């Protein structure tokens, strides 16, 4: 179904977009967000490996293998000389101890000049968002002209540690100077010392898993199990249509050593409401509403984007995809407001940009849980919540539903923690080109009660 808005000269989609939309698109003509004396910073290109369910085809790799593949894909797609990049920044959450600065290891493996500095950042699910905005800061400050940012997460193999007592004993053994000291330490080891410490997706400050927080947030805003399942089904259905119609242009093919060539995300699985209703609660039992079907799944994957000053990009012959404009980071109570980052970040970034919700043509929000998305939209729609938190009203679902995550999201495409931010920004740029919009909004929640929001402006076509 197409709705034609004569005032904006825009063909805008409802929930199910057609692959033929671009042939009829007339790009909106609004004011630009460029500011006098402020450097224009552009997204030149973005790529990602296919996002795969953990424990599948990528299972025998390491994180830097995926990051290297994304970097090589970016090099191939842009043709940028390997020594023309000034800096490389990667985001990740669960670090492989052998490659703690995965940005540097992946860059060297991808063949970038060893003279290019690289560092790794971590900010939970907005780690690659932080990588990108750090790149923006370097360019805005005049330190760099071209920066590669990205993210990687590898949940197929996470660090599992010995217990603390066992670690202390082993370190003491390493320092022991006599046989007697060594035998005494070995004799002190008890069976309980051998129990491993397993990593958990839980808040250190509250000891609560994110799933528990999602369940409580959904209950607080009256999000039903049916609403959550409907949204999850929507995400998978839209992702499958986008994949089948070739809209996921950022996905590159990757030859996995000793395995097949991977060219598609493998977590996209449209189901039915009847099948989803059969699943039991995953976190709060037996009355919770968050299930495996309406939650994002553990995912392996990597992403990379090329960010440049507009002047440098044009001088090198590139046609940028979008301008990276205003952005904000927010933080709130990690207990009761853990996943409300989009609600807090969205009005702040819109105010910085001088825009309203109705000005935004493309919305891409990170889908940690269906309940989290619906709770954020209901929070934005709530007069009392908006007035209490922001001091003004901001409407969520009513303003954005027909423009919201139309190519699927983290629930269906997958969510490699450190890599999702680049996917969101690249998707906004591609959707703006495809749909003829001018402004896009990215928003995401993250562990620790933090969040990020960014406004992206289409580059003139």
From TrEMBL:
Cross-referenced Pfam families: Thiolase_C (PF02803), Thiolase_N (PF00108)
GO BP terms: fatty acid beta-oxidation
GO molecular function, one term: acetyl-CoA C-acyltransferase activity
GO cellular component, one term: endoplasmic reticulum
EC numbers, comma separated: 2.3.1.155, 2.3.1.16
Subcellular location: Endoplasmic reticulum; Mitochondrion inner membrane; Mitochondrion outer membrane
Predominant cellular place of this UniProt entry's protein: endoplasmic reticulum
Catalytic activity: tetradecanoyl-CoA + acetyl-CoA = 3-oxohexadecanoyl-CoA + CoA; hexanoyl-CoA + acetyl-CoA = 3-oxooctanoyl-CoA + CoA; dodecanoyl-CoA + acetyl-CoA = 3-oxotetradecanoyl-CoA + CoA; octanoyl-CoA + acetyl-CoA = 3-oxodecanoyl-CoA + CoA
Stretches assigned to the Thiolase N-terminal domain: 41-311
Keywords carried by this UniProt record: Acetylation, Acyltransferase, Endoplasmic reticulum, Fatty acid metabolism, Lipid metabolism, Membrane, Mitochondrion, Mitochondrion inner membrane, Mitochondrion outer membrane, Transferase, Transit peptide
Pathway listed: Lipid metabolism; fatty acid beta-oxidation
Ranges for domain Thiolase C-terminal: 318-457
Similarity-based family: Belongs to the thiolase-like superfamily. Thiolase family.
Function of the protein: Mitochondrial trifunctional enzyme catalyzes the last three of the four reactions of the mitochondrial beta-oxidation pathway. The mitochondrial beta-oxidation pathway is the major energy-producing process in tissues and is performed through four consecutive reactions breaking down fatty acids into acetyl-CoA. Among the enzymes involved in this pathway, the trifunctional enzyme exhibits specificity for long-chain fatty acids.
Subunit structure, interactors included: Heterotetramer of 2 alpha/HADHA and 2 beta/HADHB subunits; forms the mitochondrial trifunctional enzyme. Also purified as higher order heterooligomers including a 4 alpha/HADHA and 4 beta/HADHB heterooligomer which physiological significance remains unclear. The mitochondrial trifunctional enzyme interacts with MTLN. Interacts with RSAD2/viperin.
Name recorded for this polypeptide: Trifunctional enzyme subunit beta, mitochondrial
Taxonomic source organism: Lates calcarifer (Barramundi)
């Amino acid at each position: 179904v197409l709705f034609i808005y004569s005032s904006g000269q825009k063909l805008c989609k409802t929930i199910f977009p057609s692959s033929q939309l671009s042939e009829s698109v007339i790009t909106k003509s609004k004011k630009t967000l460029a500011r006098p004396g402020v450097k224009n910073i552009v997204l030149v290109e973005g790529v990602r490996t296919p996002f795969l369910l953990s424990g599948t085809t990528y299972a025998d790799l390491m994180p830097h293998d995926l990051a290297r593949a994304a970097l090589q894909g970016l090099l191939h797609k842009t043709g940028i000389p390997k020594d023309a990049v000034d800096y490389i920044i990667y985001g990740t959450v669960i670090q492989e101890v052998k490659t703690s600065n995965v940005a540097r290891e992946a860059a060297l493996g991808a063949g970038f000049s060893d003279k290019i500095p690289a560092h790794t950042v971590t900010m939970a699910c907005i780690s690659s968002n932080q990588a990108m905005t750090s790149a923006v800061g370097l360019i805005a400050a005049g330190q760099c002209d071209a920066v590669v940012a990205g993210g990687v997460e590898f949940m197929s193999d996470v660090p599992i540690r010995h217990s603390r007592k066992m670690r202390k004993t082993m370190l003491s053994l390493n320092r022991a100077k006599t046989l007697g000291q060594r035998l005494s330490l070995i004799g002190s080891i008890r069976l309980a010392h051998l129990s491993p410490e397993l990593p958990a997706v839980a808040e250190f400050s509250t000891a609560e898993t994110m799933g528990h927080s999602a369940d409580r947030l959904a209950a607080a805003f009256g999000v039903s199990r049916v609403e959550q399942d409907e949204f999850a089904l929507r995400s998978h259905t839209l992702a499958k249509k986008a994949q089948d119609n070739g809209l996921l242009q950022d996905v590159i093919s990757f030859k996995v050593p000793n395995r097949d060539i991977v060219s598609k995300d493998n977590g996209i699985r449209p189901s039915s409401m009847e099948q989803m209703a059969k699943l039991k609660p995953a976190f709060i039992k037996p009355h919770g509403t968050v299930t495996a079907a309406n939650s994002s799944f553990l995912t392996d994957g990597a992403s990379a984007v090329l960010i440049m000053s507009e002047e440098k990009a044009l001088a090198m012959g590139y046609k940028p995809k979008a301008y990276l404009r205003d952005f904000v980071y927010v933080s709130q109570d990690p207990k009761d407001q853990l996943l409300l980052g989009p609600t807090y970040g969205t009005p702040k970034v819109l105010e910085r940009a001088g825009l309203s919700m109705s000005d935004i043509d493309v919305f891409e929000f990170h889908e940690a849980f269906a309940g989290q998305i619906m709770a954020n939209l209901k929070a934005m729609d709530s007069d009392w919540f908006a007035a209490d938190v922001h001091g003004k009203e901001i409407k969520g679902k009513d303003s954005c539903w027909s423009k919201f995550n139309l190519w699927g999201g983290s629930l269906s495409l997958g969510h490699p923690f450190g890599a999702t931010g680049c996917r969101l920004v690249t998707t906004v740029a591609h959707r703006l080109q495809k749909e003829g919009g001018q402004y896009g909004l990215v928003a995401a929640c993250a562990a620790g009660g933090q969040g990020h929001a960014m406004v992206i402006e289409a580059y003139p076509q």
